Every structure is written in structure tokens, then in C-alpha cells.
């Protein structure tokens, strides 16, 4: 790893360590060493840098540390990346002397107040808990273009996976590892919380596909493919058409026709039906699938199956009375 990349990784780790101290009453340096897959000496240097940067971190007994949270204002409003930046800034101004430390402290206090009083609220769904140590190992494998292996806890049983790792992505509250399966040449996706026994090999792969990020940007969920060669045409009722005019419900959405009654004919280009299935279900009963027919039949069967389950449950409820 280059000196620049090593420095960046350290700053990110410092932000994550600070987050851990904010969430826990006390933390051992040994536990941090295992968590971040690094040496105890490296962790000791990290903790010393945090203290020198002005964070009220104290060793309450040998190897056990505590952050005096009453002396730290509102750091919980920042995410890990922002915390890493706060650490870097405090470290830099600390080297410039007391006047700069005081000025920086005042600016950070002002930022805390602004963030807490911000008149904008954005609701982001909670994500599946992320194993930061696993994430760091995956990111290192991607950066070094190393093939990896792991056990994957699939619904029908655990199985071994060999993969060229390309990207870690976040969709709808879940984290995934995206990569190529060398044995089939198929682009696969794996939920990070189901990955076990992750190992990085010494074998390298050539390159990450240059169009992968474009493919990800053109998807609204994890059901993406490199070729969005299926076109789905839908008639949208006038009662909800305004939503589709104001916002694309799927990145490839196109309005083909606005009818006099206010309804719309809309198309979506997808790589497979799963990419759009649940999105359309959320708009029942305000749309009709015009084509392709096999997708219309598939959606209809889904809905019929759901109706049958509801009817069966109603019968059971009546019997219980």
C-alpha cells in the first residue's frame, strides 16, 4: 500500500474508532486490534493520535479506554466518513498551535449546532449491521485486485464462493459484494451479512469492468444486469400519473404518451423482471401492464397467489370463532 493510501486508511479507521467509543462505555485496545485486523501497536498509535487531536480519551486501566462523552459535543450527528474528517482537521490544527485549536473548536461547535437545528429532515432506512473488519478486508481485496473466497449462507444452505470482487454496494438497507464468478463469467451479488470465512488470495484479476458503475447507476435495486434489454410498457392511471411525471420510479423510466384523460403510457428497460416487479406492486391497483404478456401473466399469478392466501386465512379465522 502506498504512503498516501495508508494515510487515508488510517484516517478512516480513526473515524470508525471514534464512533465505537461514542457507542460503548469502555473499549479495550486488544478488541480494537481484532476488530480492525491490525497490530496492537498500530491501535496504540491511533489512540495516542486521537488524544493529541484533543479528544478526551483516557486509559481507565491497563489496555481499557474510555471517552468522556460529556466533554464532546454532538458527534453522534456525523457519519463515519465525517468523523474521520473531524479527526483529520483537529489533528492538523493541533499542530498549528492553541489559537488555531480554539478557532477550529468554535467552527466545529457551530457546525454541530447547524446540523442539529437544520430545518430539513431526510429519512434513510436503517441498514443491516455492517461488520467493519470484514468491509475493510473486502475493500483491500478490491483495491489490490485480489480474488477472494468465502462461505455464503444462502437460504438453501451454505456454499463456497470464489469471486473477483469489484464493488461494495448499498441498496434498500442491505450491503452487497458485487463481482465476477470466474468459473461461469457471471456477475454475481452477495449480501455482506451472509459472508463467512472471507479470505483474500494472492491471485490477481485483470480489471474491473469500465461500465460497472454506469450499470449500477441505472438500477434502483440489487436486481441489475449489464444488459437492460427487456422493455416493459405500463399504463398508469391519471390519479397517480403526477408522481411518475415528477420523479422516475426506476432510472430507465420513459414517458411515451400523455393521454387526454391524464393517464400515462410509461416504459421501463430492465435486465430481468425482478428489477421492476416490487416497484410496480407498490402501485397496485393504479396501473395495467400492456407488455410483455409473460410478465403480465407472472404478476397476475403473484397477485392471485396472494389473494388465495388471504382467503385461506379468512377461512381459518372464521373457523376459530
Automatic annotation (TrEMBL):
Top-level taxon of the source organism: Bacteria
SUPFAM superfamilies noted in UniProt: Winged helix' DNA-binding domain
Domain Helix-turn-helix type: 13-63
Domain WYL, first and last residues per copy: 134-198
Name listed for the protein in its UniProt record: Transcriptional regulator
Residue intervals of the WCX domain: 229-305
InterPro entries attached to this UniProt entry: CBASS_pafABC_assoc_protein, HTH_11, PafC-like, WCX_dom, WH-like_DNA-bd_sf, WH_DNA-bd_sf, WYL_dom
Amino acid at each position: 500500500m502506498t504512503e498516501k493510501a495508508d494515510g487515508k486508511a488510517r484516517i478512516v479507521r480513526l473515524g470508525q474508532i471514534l464512533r465505537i467509543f461514542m457507542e460503548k462505555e469502555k473499549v479495550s485496545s486488544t478488541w480494537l486490534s481484532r476488530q480492525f485486523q491490525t497490530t496492537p501497536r498500530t491501535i496504540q498509535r491511533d489512540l495516542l493520535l486521537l488524544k493529541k487531536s484533543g479528544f478526551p480519551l483516557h486509559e481507565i486501566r491497563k489496555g481499557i479506554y474510555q471517552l468522556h462523552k460529556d466533554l464532546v459535543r454532538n458527534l453522534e450527528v456525523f457519519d463515519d466518513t465525517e468523523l474521520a474528517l473531524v479527526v483529520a482537521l483537529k489533528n492538523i490544527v493541533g499542530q498549528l498551535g492553541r489559537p488555531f485549536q480554539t478557532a477550529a473548536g468554535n467552527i466545529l461547535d457551530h457546525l454541530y449546532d447547524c446540523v442539529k437545528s437544520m430545518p430539513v429532515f431526510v429519512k434513510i432506512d436503517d441498514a443491516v449491521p455492517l461488520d467493519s473488519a470484514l468491509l475493510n478486508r473486502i475493500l483491500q481485496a478490491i483495491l489490490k485486485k485480489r480474488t477472494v473466497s468465502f462461505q455464503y449462507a444462502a437460504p438453501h444452505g451454505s456454499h463456497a464462493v470464489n469471486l473477483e470482487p469489484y464493488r461494495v454496494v448499498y441498496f434498500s438497507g442491505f450491503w452487497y459484494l458485487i463481482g465476477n464468478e470466474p468459473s461461469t463469467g457471471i456477475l454475481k451479488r452477495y449480501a455482506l451479512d451472509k459472508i463467512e470465512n472471507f479470505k483474500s488470495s494472492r491471485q490477481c484479476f485483470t480489471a474491473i469492468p469500465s461500465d460497472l458503475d454506469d450499470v449500477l447507476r441505472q438500477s434502483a435495486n440489487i436486481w441489475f444486469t449489464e444488459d437492460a434489454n427487456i422493455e416493459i410498457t405500463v399504463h398508469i392511471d391519471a390519479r397517480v400519473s403526477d408522481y411518475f411525471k415528477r420523479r422516475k420510479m426506476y432510472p430507465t423510466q420513459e414517458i411515451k404518451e400523455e393521454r387526454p384523460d391524464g393517464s400515462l403510457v410509461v416504459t421501463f428497460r430492465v435486465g430481468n423482471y425482478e428489477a421492476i416487479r416490487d416497484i410496480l406492486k407498490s402501485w397496485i391497483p393504479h396501473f395495467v401492464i400492456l407488455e410483455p404478456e409473460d410478465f403480465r401473466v407472472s404478476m397476475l399469478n403473484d397477485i392471485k397467489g396472494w389473494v388465495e392466501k388471504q382467503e385461506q386465512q379468512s377461512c381459518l379465522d372464521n373457523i376459530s370463532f
